[in-house]
Amino acid sequence: MPVSIADTTDADLLVNDSSTMPAILTDTSDADLPVKDSSTVSPIITDAPDADLPVKNFSTTPAITTDTSNTDQPIKESNIDVLIIGAGPAGYMAAIWFARLGINARIIDKRGTKIFTGQADGLQPRALEVFNSFGFAHRPLKEASVGFESCYYEPDANGHIHKVARKVEGVVGISRFNGSVIHQGRIEQWFTDAIDEFSNNTLQVERPLLPESLVVDESKIHDQSAYPITVTVKKLSDDDSVPDQFGHKLENGLYRQFAGDQEREFATPPESREIIHAKYVLGTDGAHSWVRKQLGIVPEGESTDYIWGVLDIVPITNLPDIRKRCAIHSVSDGSIMIIPREGDLVRFYIQLKETAREPEDGSPPGTKARVDRSKITPELILERARKILHPYTLDVAETQWFTGYQIGQRVAPKFEKWERVFIAGDACHTHSPKAGQGMNISMMDTFNLAWKIAHVVQGKASPAILSTYEDERRQVAKDLIDYDFKLSRLFSGKPGTGDGTISTDEFRDFIDKGSAFTTGCTVDYGASALVSKPPREDSNIKYASPLATELFIGMRFPDSRLVMQCDGRPWFIHDKMPSDGRWRLIDFSGDIKSSPTLAAQLVAVGHYFSSPESFIAKYTPADERVDSVIELILVHASDANNVEWDDFPLAFRSRDSRRVMDYWKIYGDMESLHGGTGDAYEKLGIKRDVGALVVVRPDGYVSMVTTPDMRGINEVGSFFDGFLIPATR
Amino acid sequence: MPVSIADTTDADLLVNDSSTMPAILTDTSDADLPVKDSSTVSPIITDAPDADLPVKNFSTTPAITTDTSNTDQPIKESNIDVLIIGAGPAGYMAAIWFARLGINARIIDKRGTKIFTGQADGLQPRALEVFNSFGFAHRPLKEASVGFESCYYEPDANGHIHKVARKVEGVVGISRFNGSVIHQGRIEQWFTDAIDEFSNNTLQVERPLLPESLVVDESKIHDQSAYPITVTVKKLSDDDSVPDQFGHKLENGLYRQFAGDQEREFATPPESREIIHAKYVLGTDGAHSWVRKQLGIVPEGESTDYIWGVLDIVPITNLPDIRKRCAIHSVSDGSIMIIPREGDLVRFYIQLKETAREPEDGSPPGTKARVDRSKITPELILERARKILHPYTLDVAETQWFTGYQIGQRVAPKFEKWERVFIAGDACHTHSPKAGQGMNISMMDTFNLAWKIAHVVQGKASPAILSTYEDERRQVAKDLIDYDFKLSRLFSGKPGTGDGTISTDEFRDFIDKGSAFTTGCTVDYGASALVSKPPREDSNIKYASPLATELFIGMRFPDSRLVMQCDGRPWFIHDKMPSDGRWRLIDFSGDIKSSPTLAAQLVAVGHYFSSPESFIAKYTPADERVDSVIELILVHASDANNVEWDDFPLAFRSRDSRRVMDYWKIYGDMESLHGGTGDAYEKLGIKRDVGALVVVRPDGYVSMVTTPDMRGINEVGSFFDGFLIPATR
């Protein structure tokens, strides 16, 4: 029996905290309904009220509250640079940047424990590249299920599903990594381990801490030395920091409410309160973001009628492709998406109903009905899955987790206020989980933002760069919602040729065309102070300089294999571009051994950078290494047998006051004695007799491309002059 | 000024503990001389008396001592399966096997601390493969210096050195790993972390614990339930567990003696004594092995006249290839080997004298003189290096460690006694460090031995398999000594064409030919109960079956890239053959979709293994997974578009009582949609229309190759019958 649909009167009771489950299991925030069964409470996932819906038990708090005095307890008070509210993947990604860069940051979460099962599970190649840039990509490679193939099943003439296509998963060659799947708890553990290492255990999630109020002193927002934001937080008791989950014995994603919400009565008084003065606040607190509510930002968009269940099970089945990603359309029982998981687990996304019922509560006609998620059980989802999979069989050896959701798509109209308080992740965008994008795009939001905040906090850059966050990431969110809207319709639609049906050919074609998008590697940031290219009308048009025709400005610098000049070791260049806060200026000098012009250019460039007048010297504090703000890298295109380490200007080799050479900045796009290299110029569209000068941002995106001569150097200098602040020397 | 050479009368005072520095910095045990300067004692490396030389301050203990009662303290007593004495790389490698396999083992060391600088540093590709099989090969990939090129410098007509050749380092394609260099302390840390993980922190080095006596009850050595070996150990005070080092401020490898030796007076009484009853004892206690002395085994061989110094420095030099491995012969100042290390470090091996002086102590003519190592200083070594490197310059930004040694080569005639007490590593073989083999071959000794002991302790196999240890590893040691003998002569010799000179052409040719040997990947074990091939006359002749002409029996199963049938993921097959104690039976079934014969064979084989009468069932305990002793793997050669998961017999797919399929045993040697696969049959010399059945040992070496049909299965059954013990079911 399909799930029943109930009214919307108790919508506030059934919400998800998407900070713990960004996107891939995000209920899009308006599907939450009354509770019937509350016999079991499973203490895993926290919850937050939905700021976007009318609520019954507590008022919609105005954007800024100031009351921090309703307790008799002594109040601790402290200043920090950044406060991160919400320890989901987006929060962790911000934290790892701050840990890596030594920023005085804290991260709090109102949940008492980490998550252990279920939730988001999809990691796109770009996310894995970013993990690699923080040094832990080997962990998904070892632990996760990695996608290499996908299969499509559709009805045959008898209405039985059968395999119609076997296709490559992802895009061959776009990244060293393939999309991988593992439960969110492991991913958060990798972050935790890396953050511990970078911060020497000083930056750790503080929990359960609930923010109570956020006040901004607008008179101070232009003063970089001030702490204009005041957040009061209270420490919850353990009892109040567990979520209130539906009455299933299994872990699941169906929650009633979280006792630890801001306006709730607490079973026990908070243990203590604290006042935190911060320069910046990041709200990575999920689809029902409290921070977003404080800013008065209301997401725009709406829900669909498509209702889906999710099962994480160890299946017993004769479907031969159960360990591949499968998209299955049945004639009339709905669709399934199969995502193999780590170990023996498989995640099933199972369509439960084609449309929700009309609401029965007297809502105006056209109001979308909500699923009564309390009625969703694993048995019910499994029963539906069996119908869709027929004639293949499905039994379950073990169920680890389940949930249900109604697809909706929303984007926040603003991602920040005052360029001081930012929201990211599910707080900014919610959508269906099926493209496997949610957690990824949430992490990439803060990957985009946190280094910029760090730059400003460290006095390296003007606060003006912070406006690029919303410009860059809101476009990505809109693209995602657009993609998800089309995908959801095609996936949830009934296959056929008549009215109200969808074409499976169109579906497969859409997936094919969208596979580059879903790798995360095609994100293309628009023109700004940080991205030097012509403004564009259409965000889908990529821009490359004629100097590097395959190196698109605003997109991530692609990986290639280069040979370290000093020792002949081949490297994936990404491995030498860690996320350490540095800008990179890459001089593709061309074949300096064949062209006297290029050789002379390189000598001039080297001479410039050896001078104390260079812009690198200007932006680098006197007590720091000369490569600490901008790392100068050389990639030549001369033959390995024809070029020696000391053929290059000292600016690329020597930057240590001890006279020890720096051997690690010069690469050749040349054949290694062990092979497998020598095609980087070609892949980037750079001519060996011309070369190019490339600026790469600390997050790995291409800022500009120009000529590898003094004219180009001057252009790069002007580019940096646009936002970097000269160091006091 | 070259180092002075003194007499041999105090030879006992200047010894190395090669358990802490196997091979690459091993003094070969007879070069130890009197001490003049003792102002500074550096508490890093321990030491042990040399059992092989006449000693002055204490007697040469007879093989077995029984006195365990010379203390009033209460004596703890316990039974364990295996006691490892000596926590250097060989000891750690044994420990990781026992941790991985859940064997009740302990590892003790008399040193109070780990090492932090210097010592051995070379990791050959095979060692990295083994690290990979224990799950930590990513650590050297991240941390170590990896060798890809080497350069040769020789005198020009003016007597100035200049580069004469640039060559590939190692052998292209022989392994996924290249030879890597990092200091021994890091390697021991990786072991420690992995052992902690495998053993859940229960197997940890106990230190400082000094063994005092070893008694074997010969009446019990054939009783597998007995604990025939009794070892008394005493806990040292911290003061007594530090080494007595020469009077340099720097860490170095020049020791006088270790206060904590068995027959010494202790500054403080031992904290406690303990009696350990063990089934097996491993002596991995270095070149001056106490265990070896207890067994009465005396190494055979002798020292040469070649005297070398070692410097670990951060160099300042204009030698352009300083970050490549360089072999440099000067006209008359000796030779240098340059080994780039992790970070900015470089290790220099520098020839100090061409010949040692005649001894001045009245020794018989022909007695080799010893270096007075107390006279060796970093300044002296550097001075010599500068002469050799001229006209290139060499300055030092930082010296981290140094030592000096005289080359010698020795092998123990026996590696065990009663098949109960074993020695391994430097206790068995010592030689020069220059081939970078010592630590590797030491680790590979216990990698060969420990799983066999585990098999016997677990009741899986007959104790008869233990004799293969000495057979297999002593041959390797002899091959190494032979190689080292020739290399030392060519490297230490004066280049030229006249009498008493060596040909540098011959030197380079020797290195070229030996590069496969130094990868560690060409070790070839002889015929035995564990290696099914014809006996051979010459250990250099490899043997392959006509069924798999490039798969040599007795050698390690080479890596290749296969595609997992169930999900299309390409795998390096080594990544799916971890060191977990299991035998592997790999059915290269051929192209079953093109050959009805092969298909029928596979059905028959599957039928056999689905039966409770199969030898896999016979050797597997009823309460364990069916793949816990012998893992059955299928590698077909059919086209990916032509073959489905359920085309294969259930024996290869189903082995779980819950009816969950085992998806992880079937591979195709087929093109992955992402490319890069499909050549494994060809590389192994297996015909796609014939196939082969391959048995691989738990340590990854090929035991046998036969036909992939019931005749072959019966042969494999007989092979296992030769040493496996049927499980009680």
From TrEMBL, chains A, B:
Keyword Oxidoreductase found: yes
Signal peptide feature range: none
GO molecular function: FAD binding; oxidoreductase activity, acting on paired donors, with incorporation or reduction of molecular oxygen, NAD(P)H as one donor, and incorporation of one atom of oxygen
Top-level taxon in the UniProt lineage: Eukaryota
Keywords: FAD, Flavoprotein, Oxidoreductase
Annotated coiled-coil segments of the chain: none
Domain FAD-binding as annotated: residue spans: 80-482
UniProt family annotation: Belongs to the PheA/TfdB FAD monooxygenase family.
Protein name: Related to phenol 2-monooxygenase
Organism annotation: Cephalotrichum gorgonifer
